Every structure is written in C-alpha cells, then in structure tokens.
Prior knowledge:
It is a single chain. This protein is an alpha/beta fold. Helix content is 43%, strand content 16%. It folds into two domains: 146 residues, Aspartate Aminotransferase, domain 1; 276 residues, Type I PLP-dependent aspartate aminotransferase-like (Major domain) (Aspartate Aminotransferase, domain 2, 3-Layer(aba) Sandwich), CATH 3.40.640. The protein is built from 17 helices and 15 strands. The strands form three sheets. Strands 4-10-9-8-7-5-6 form a seven-stranded mixed sheet, with helices on both faces. It is globular and about 70 Å long. The two termini are 35 Å apart. It binds 4'-deoxy-4'-aminopyridoxal-5'-phosphate (PMP). 4'-deoxy-4'-aminopyridoxal-5'-phosphate binds next to α6. The site of 4'-deoxy-4'-aminopyridoxal-5'-phosphate has 15 residues, from α6.
Amino acid sequence: MDALSNSLAAADIATTMHPYTNLRQHEQTGPLIISRGDGIRVYDERGKEYIEGLAGLWSVAVGFSEKRLADAAYQQMLKLPYYHTFSSKAHEPSIRLAEKLVEMTPENLTRVFFTSSGSEANDTIVKMMWFMNNALGRPKKKKFLARTKGYHGITVASGSLTGLPINHRDFDLPAIPVRHLTCPHFYRFGMEGEDEAAFTARLLAELEAVIAEEGADTIAAFIGEPLMAAGGVLPPPVGYWEGVEKICRANDIMLIADEVICGFGRLGTPFGCQKFSFTPDIMTLSKQITSSYMPLAAVMFSEAIYQAIADNTATIGNFGHGFTASGHPVATAVGLENLAIFEERDLIGNAARLEASFQAGIRSFADHPLVGEARGTGLIGAVELVADKATKRPFAKVGRAGTIAGGIGHEEGLIFRAIGDQLALCPPMISTEDDVKEIMTRMGRTLERLTGAVAKEGLE
Ligand code: PMP
C-alpha cells in the first residue's frame, strides 16, 4: 500500500466506529477502502477490481456510475438544495415522487410518508399504528407480530421488530411489545418428516394460536419481508403469505410488507408481495428507490389508515411526527430519475429474465460438500455452509467459515455478504447474462478454495 492508503487506513482505525464490524478485529486488519465505481464493479484504492455481488447493501440497482443520478442531484441542488415538508410546506420533487410511488405500488396504497432510512420508516409505521389505534378508540391494540430472523432495522422500535439476537443482545431490545414467530425457512425450521405444506400449516397454526393467546384486540400489525433477506435470503414456504394474509384479515390485524430489499423488482415482480400473492395495508420502501445514491425511504399506506390519522389531527392538532429530511428535495429528485431509468431500461423485466440463469447458477453449488442449501428467487440468492451436509449440522464456530469465504471472495474479485455462514448474492439490477456467468465463476472459485481453507483451520 502507498503512503496515502496507509495514512487513510490509520486514520480510519483511529477515528471511526464501523457499523456491523468486529471492532477489535478491525483494529488489526484495517478497512477495505473502496475508492470508485463503474457499472456493477467497484475498485479499491490500489486499483483492484471487484464485482459488487451484493449491489452495495442490496441496493445499488443502476450500478455505481450512473451520471444521470449525479446530474439530477446537481440540478436540484442548484435550484433548491433543501426544503422541508413540515406544516404544509412542499416542493415539486417530493410531490412527483409520491405520485409515482402511488402509481407503482398496489392499488390500495394511496398515501406516502417519507423518511431517510428503512429503520426510520419502520419506526414511523409503529408510531402510526399506535396513533391510529388511539384515534380509533382502541388503546389496547398496540402489539406487533414479527418473525425470528426478520430484519426491519436497528432503531429502538424497528430493532425490536427485527428478530436477530445480535440486534437485541446487550442493546436491551425488544423495547416495544412484539412477539417473534417461527422463521418461515423450511430447510432449517422444518421438522423431521414434515413436508413443506405441513410446515406452512404449522406456521399458520402458530400464528392463530399467538393471536388467540394475546387477544386480537391487543395486536396492531404483522410485519414481514416477503422474502427474508438480511436474515440469510430465506424464501417463504408455499402458501405461507396467502395464509398469513387471511388470518390477519380475519382478526383485523394490519399487514405490513417490509419491501426495503424486495421492492423495485428484486424478485422479478415490481414488489415482493406480488411474487407471493398478498396485498399489504402498509409497505416499507427504501434502498433501490434511489439506488442508494441518496438516503431515502417511504412508508406507503392505505386510505383507511390515512383517514383515521387525519381525523385525529383535526381534533388534537398536528400529526407530531416527521424528520428534518422527510421528502428531502435532492433525495426525491434522485429517486424520480432512478425510477425513470428503471422504466426506460425495464430493469424489473431484466431481473425476471435473468432469474433462470442466476438461480441455476446458485443451485449449481448445491453439490459442493460444504453447501447445505442453495436457494433464492429472482435476482437474490444464497448458499448456506454447513459442517455436515447429511445432517445439516452447522459449524460449531458460527460465522468463521463465512468470514474465510468473504476473504477468498475478495481475492477472487467478488464481494458478497457473509451472514454468519450464509453467503448472499444480490447483484445490481443492470447486470447482464455475461455478468451473471462471471459472478458464478468467481463464486465457484471461492467455494473450491474454501474447502481446503476450512480443512486447514480444522473447522468442524
Ligand atoms: N428493512 C429491511 C427489510 C432491510 O433489509 C433493512 C436494511 N437492510 C431495513 C429495513 C433497515 O434499513 P436502514 O438500514 O436503511 O435503516
């Protein structure tokens, strides 16, 4: 490394507490400093090339060098760099984007509330549900249902909805009333002798039992990602979502689809709820909304929810919630341009067309001795590493094989995400058939080398 790289790395270690990072390890290994992007590729400060196989954090749909988004941001900054949307103030980009989102999402979602992150959007939903149920004179209806391994963010309320131990342990979460139901992942949570349909039936019976136990009049909403992504890329079992929707409707429980990763075509349909045939009352959007060129998220919700909240503001005054950056003009202008590119290049259709070769590529790793399951749908997939393929036994030291794989991946020029020992791929939506081939080639080389590396460390 040259002097600049060395001094940058030293400054990083000296100053920055990185999110989702083992800090003591980071002090030893230092950062991987990415300095530029080009299409689906990024380059580190030594000029080494990587395919960004996770599109950043499942988010950079149009790739890392889209000038039109840079221009949209620049033009908006020249015209009106900032204005807020409190107390009836408005500006054109946020109005236009709201209109666009209402047009794109399922028909019943007629209203939008903007935030800057997925976490803030899910916190907003929690508060909207509480506010709405107070307004409707049902102050007991405040609990949430979520799933183990679900991911909904890390702020106090959204982190409570998330169902991962690392986000709860030592953070004193959950801090809001939430029940986490069984993770709908057949490979890991299906029981001996149970087929997928029986697994679904068991999950739905559990949902009904929890509602009966808690009382439907105490439960505000059920939240779930159509396909659980950050928990390990876990497609739901057949019939699951139709069943959940039916039970929620029968019990007057709002259904929230957290589409932060599935949204905008990742599964080959505009939204994940369409892939799995259900209609949510509320939807969380973020990430691909701007291809992450600017921070932005949106809560989409039904007219009935809006009307209940609006009625209450007529009585008590303002809806006392909102962020300095809600509907930020530069972020919403970039979002509009990004969605225009989605349409012009038919990126959702592109994901649908690539699904066959991408999923075949992922599943081609199923025979590898360390791969317990190779899974996914649309343009998202994962392989789960196990110590014993026959019994599905995970490695005793969870996450070590994943970390080793990540390191080899870097050497092979492929960035994916190791979620414990699950290796996730979610490439940019502009990828081509050739890109998919190259991603699978690099993943294949990584897995080939992994066998020896795991044996060498004596991982069991
Ligand atoms: N919901 C889902 C489904 C997510 O995947 C994420 C982030 N990975 C979030 C919410 C939280 O978004 P943010 O990191 O922007 O707060």
